[in-house]
Each structure stands twice: as structure tokens, then as C-alpha cells.
Write a structure and sequence with these properties.
Helix content of chain B: over 70%
Helix content of chain A: over 70%
Largest sheet of chain B: 2 strands, antiparallel
Distance between the termini of chain B: 44 Å
Strand order of the largest sheet of chain B: 1-2
Oligomer: heterodimer
Structural class of chain A: mainly alpha
CATH class of chain B: Mainly Alpha
CATH topology of chain A: ABC transporter involved in vitamin B12 uptake, BtuC
Number of helices of chain B: 11
Low-confidence stretches of chain A: 291-295
Largest interface: A-B, 48 and 49 residues
Number of strands of chain A: 4
Order of helices and strands of chain A: HHHHEEEHHHHEHHHH
Mean pLDDT of chain B: 87
Radius of gyration of chain B: 19 Å
Number of domains of chain A: 1
Mean pLDDT of chain A: 87
Strand content of chain A: under 5%
């Protein structure tokens, strides 16, 4: 049972990390990122290729983080030229082009994918439990960073850009710099998650980073509650464990998935635990804090 | 040889134009990226198949399937899209998320109801392929060309020569002011969905006839390629969409035949898109300052 839990838990934790990183880009900076899995893939392939050369596990992770971050910075520069809808489509496009490249380039193993040796930790091969613990530690670090970021000048600048970029600019906020920085941070974390993923799976192929995965990550953020920290975490846990609980309904998985997405944005666009969430209101009423108190 | 590939590309391109037209009309009025159009394309192809098998009449299959899918579009617009648009949004891509959900649902519903296997149209044309100076022309190509041209002409007529079309153009220009002037923007939206989803259904049937096979995965490639095409055409510009569709069809066919690029055919649309957007961020025929 616990082996089973850690096996799903390790993947779930990686996806929570991805959801949190996407939330920095779409939630706080309000940028329409639809191709997050591409950067997840860039990190994973970077780590896998270095692993094949015999590079140390931690260095692989660092390289995955840097590589995805650099690519994200380039996207950030591009995003300055594009308004929301164009950016959404461009990022979808980047996702497809990246998957096509992963699937066709020699260095990424082509359609056969890449094998990754499991790293050693204290003289033993890392198991799912280790990966789970490692990813949870990363999640905690990212959450702390996000909290710190939100309360900093950087976070406030992001919020103002999200509200009205033109107004923010007129107040002397360097919108371009912050926007590029956000893309860099968000994609770097996605790359890190990719590095962990490659080592945990022991094998990666281009389909692991397809557009549907981007949608899955976005769904976690939207269903949980965009622009909050609890939202992506709860969304990630729900969407990772729900399919396991609904194993008997496996045949209907995509139908349920699509239906959930439609119902959520139709009736609860703020997400389960986001702004204006009935669950939160109920919780506050039970705690006796009264409704309408701003967080 | 080149001419053959050129015609081949034009046929594919006109299908793309027809498929993407729905998304363009919808974007023009509602300003949302409707990926679910590819679901209409898929459902249209399957409905057409069932009707064709029940009646043996391909014209009936086209008409009924287009009408039914167009109606479905209006229902979706009333029940899903309009209410989402009416609420204040935390994120600009929320309607896109809804569309992705609808598309996922439609693909899976088709798979569950109609089976995961391939279905063949087996539509026999009364004439054979004919040769024109070394170029082979299939009757299905003629059908696709002619039908696309007719549908686009009907669209042009509706948009430019009828009151309904005037209302559509006014709403696309500025929905709020149009409403203030007494234009029924709701019916303009409904028009977008009827025409858009109907066109997508027709394109689905044509693809079914052209390749003689339909599967529940039929909508996957068009779903995102459509987005690339409408952006290239300058979001919400019907004429631009036709040009962009033909351009992508030609680029795909010619590039995959004459060059050895390391990416598959279906990703070419996005490579072209990314390059064009970097040079001209508002698309090929987009207006400069449209916010």
C-alpha cells in the first residue's frame, strides 16, 4: 500500500510542482502560458542527456533548471511583443514544435526516447519514496519563495501588471523586466521538475510532454484556484489521485476530465479554493470569521 | 510534378481554410479561441457517415450534418460560452480552457459512442480520376474545391449583402456600440456559431471522403492547426483565414516533399506561425492596434 502511495505520490508531487510554477506565470503575472509541458520536457531531456554522460544527479537537476530557465527567458522576450491570445497560441505552438523536435532529433533519442539511470543516494538507488520526499521539499521551497515573492516589491509589481499593464508602466514599473523574470522563474521550476521526473521514471519519451500534459497542468491550476498557493496544490492532488480512485471508470476518464473543466470554468471560474469560492466561504463561516472578510 | 504537388497543397489548404473559418467567425465576434470547433468537425464527420450509410445520399449527409452541428453550436454558445463571457474574468484564457474541455469531451464521447476503430466512407464518385497534361486530378479534389468555394461565397454573401451580415460586421467592430444602436448582437453570435460549426462539419465530411477513413482522433490535428491558421490570418479576419489556410496547405505539402526538415508535417504550421508572429506580431492581415 505504501509503495503504491509513494509511486503515485511521487508523480503527483512533480505535477504539483509544475502547477505551482505555471501559477507564477499565469496566476500572478497573468500571462497566457499554454505550453508549460514544453519546458518540463526541456528540463527532462537536459537531465536525461547529461545523465547518459555520467553527470552527477544534482548537477543534472541544476542544468535542467538553468536550461529551461534560459529558454523561458527567450519566451519572455517574445511575449513582450504578443498580446494574450497570440501568446496563448504561440505557446501551444512551441509545445507542438518541441515535442516534434524531441521525437525527431538524434540527441533526444528520437521516437525511442531516452533511458535514465536511477541516481544513488547514500550508497543506495533512489526509490519512489526518496523522489517523493525530494519533490515535497522542492514544493515547500517553491511555496516559501512564492509567499516571499508576493510580499515583495516584485510581487506587487506583478499584481499591478496583471491588473493593468499600461497603468503599471505609467507608474514607472519596468513591465518588460518583470515579465521576462516571471517567465524565467516559472519555466526554470518546470525544468527542475522535468529533471526530477526523468530520474524518477528512468525512461522518457516525447509523448510525456505533449500538449495534453500542458492542459493537465493548467487544469490543476484552474480547478484548484488560480492565483493562490493552495489552489495548484489542491488541484494537483485532486487530479493526480482522482484517476486512481476512479479506476473502474478508466474508460470515461477523458470525458470526466473535459466535463470537469467545462463545469469549473462555467460555474466556478475562480476554482475550488480561489477567489469567491463557496468552499472557502463555508469554511470561514464554520470558523466564525464571518463572510466577506478579505484574506 | 511540381504542379501536382501544388494542386495537392491547394486542396489541403482549402480544407484548412474551411475548418478554420468557424474559429475565425467566432473570434471575430466573441473574441474567444474556440478549439471546440475541431469537435464540431469530428462530430460532423461522424454524423455525416451515419446519415450517408442510412440513406446513401451524400448531399443529404452534408446538409443534415451541417444543420445539426450548427444547432449544437448555438446551444453551446447559449449554455456555456455566453455565460462565461458575461462574468468578470481572472484570466484571459478561461474561455479557451472551456473550449479545450469541450473538445476533450467531444473526442471521448465519439470514441465511446461510435467505437475507437476506423470507419470508411466508401463514397464512389460517378467519374474517374482524370489526367491533364501529366497532372492527375481526383474527383474528390474537385468536390472539395467546388464545395469550399460555394460555402465561402455563401459566407461572403451573408456577411456583405444581408442585414444579418451587417449586424455581424457591426458587432465584430464594436459589440457595445452596436448594441446601443439596436443591433441584436446575440443573433450575430448565434450566426457565428451556426455558420462556423456548420462549416467545420462540412470540412469533416470532406476529409472523411478524401482519406476514406474517420477515427475519433480526427479532430486532434485540426484543433491546434486551426489556431495557427486563424492567427496567421489576423484573428477574426475571414479573408485572411482563407489566404492563411491555403498558405499553410501549400507550405506543408511543398516543404515536406522538397526539403528535409527534421520536423513532421503537422508542426510546420506552427513554425510558420512563430516566424510570422516574430516579424509581424498581429498576423498576416491583422490590424496594427486591435486590442
Amino acid at each position: 500500500m505504501s509503495a503504491y502511495f509513494f509511486s503515485i505520490g511521487a508523480t503527483a508531487a512533480i505535477f504539483i510542482l509544475l502547477a505551482l510554477s505555471l501559477n507564477i506565470i499565469t496566476g500572478y503575472a497573468g500571462q497566457a502560458m499554454m505550453g508549460h509541458a514544453a519546458f518540463f520536457g526541456i528540463g527532462a531531456y537536459t537531465a536525461a542527456i547529461l545523465n547518459g554522460m555520467g553527470v552527477n544527479f544534482w548537477l543534472c537537476l541544476l542544468a535542467a533548471l538553468v536550461m529551461a530557465g534560459v529558454c523561458g527567458a527567450v519566451l519572455g522576450v517574445i511575449s513582450l511583443r504578443l498580446q494574450a491570445d497570440f501568446l496563448a497560441i504561440t505557446t501551444i505552438g512551441i509545445n507542438f514544435v518541441m515535442v516534434a523536435l524531441f521525437n525527431n532529433l538524434k540527441i533526444t533519442g528520437g521516437s525511442l526516447g531516452l533511458n535514465v539511470r536511477k541516481p544513488m543516494l547514500f550508497g543506495a538507488r533512489m526509490t519512489n519514496t526518496h523522489f517523493f520526499v525530494l519533490t515535497v521539499i522542492l514544493i515547500v521551497i517553491v511555496c516559501l519563495l512564492t509567499v516571499k515573492m508576493r510580499r515583495s516589491w516584485f510581487g506587487m509589481a506583478l499584481a499591478s501588471i496583471n491588473n493593468d499593464a499600461a497603468a503599471a508602466r505609467s507608474f514607472g514599473i519596468d513591465v518588460n523586466r518583470y515579465q521576462i523574470l516571471t517567465f524565467t522563474i516559472g519555466t526554470a521550476i518546470a525544468g527542475l521538475a522535468g529533471g526530477v521526473y526523468a530520474h524518477r521514471m528512468g525512461f522518457i519519451a516525447s509523448s510525456d510532454f505533449a500538449f495534453v500534459i500542458s492542459i493537465q497542468i493548467l487544469s490543476m491550476v484552474v480547478i484548484g484556484g488560480i492565483g493562490t498557493i493552495r489552489g495548484p496544490i489542491v488541484g494537483g492532488i485532486l487530479l493526480s489521485f482522482l484517476p486512481e480512485l476512479l479506476r473502474f471508470a478508466d474508460n470515461y476518464r477523458n470525458l470526466v476530465y473535459g466535463g470537469l473543466l467545462v463545469l469549473m470554468v462555467r460555474f466556478l471560474p475562480g476554482g475550488l479554493l480561489g477567489e469567491g469560492s463557496p468552499i472557502l466561504k463555508l469554511w470561514r463561516r464554520i470558523r466564525g470569521k464571518g463572510v466577506g472578510v478579505h484574506e | 510534378m511540381f504542379l501536382q504537388q501544388f494542386i495537392n497543397g491547394l486542396v489541403i489548404g482549402s480544407l484548412y481554410a474551411l475548418t478554420a473559418m468557424g474559429a475565425t467567425l467566432i473570434y471575430g465576434i466573441l473574441g474567444i479561441l474556440d478549439i471546440a470547433n475541431a469537435g464540431a468537425y469530428l462530430i460532423g464527420a461522424y454524423l455525416g457517415w451515419y446519415i450517408f450509410y442510412a440513406t446513401g445520399n451524400i448531399a443529404l449527409a452534408f446538409l443534415l450534418s451541417m444543420a445539426a452541428v450548427g444547432l449544437l453550436g448555438v446551444v453551446l454558445q447559449r449554455l456555456i460560452y455566453s455565460p462565461i463571457l458575461a462574468k468578470p474574468r481572472t484570466l484571459s484564457i478561461i474561455p479557451l480552457v472551456a473550449a479545450v474541455g469541450l473538445f476533450t469531451m467531444s473526442s471521448d464521447a465519439v470514441r465511446l459512442i461510435c467505437g475507437a476503430g476506423t470507419k470508411a466512407y466508401n463514397f464512389k464518385f460517378p467519374v474517374d480520376a482524370f489526367h491533364l497534361g501529366g497532372v492527375t486530378i481526383l474527383p474528390s479534389w474537385v468536390l472539395i474545391f467546388a464545395l469550399t468555394a460555394v460555402l465561402l461565397l455563401i459566407l461572403w454573401f451573408i456577411l456583405n449583402r444581408t442585414r444579418m451580415g451587417l449586424a455581424w460586421r457591426a458587432s465584430a467592430e464594436d459589440a457595445e456600440i452596436s448594441r446601443a444602436c439596436g443591433v441584436n448582437t446575440n443573433s450575430a453570435m448565434a450566426l457565428s456559431y451556426i455558420l462556423g460549426y456548420g462549416f467545420a462539419a462540412a470540412a469533416g465530411i470532406m476529409v472523411g471522403i478524401l482519406y476514406n477513413s474517420i477515427t475519433p482522433a480526427l479532430g486532434e490535428v485540426p484543433s491546434y492547426k486551426m489556431l495557427a491558421i486563424i492567427v496567421l490570418g489576423g484573428l477574426g479576419n475571414p479573408l485572411g483565414t482563407v489566404i492563411a489556410g491555403l498558405l499553410i496547405g501549400l507550405a506543408e505539402t511543398l516543404l515536406s516533399v522538397y526539403t528535409k526538415i527534421p520536423i513532421p508535417k503537422d508542426a510546420i504550421a506552427f513554425v510558420v506561425l512563430i516566424i510570422v508572429l516574430l516579424i509581424k506580431p498581429s498576423g498576416l492581415l491583422g490590424q496594427k492596434n486591435k486590442v
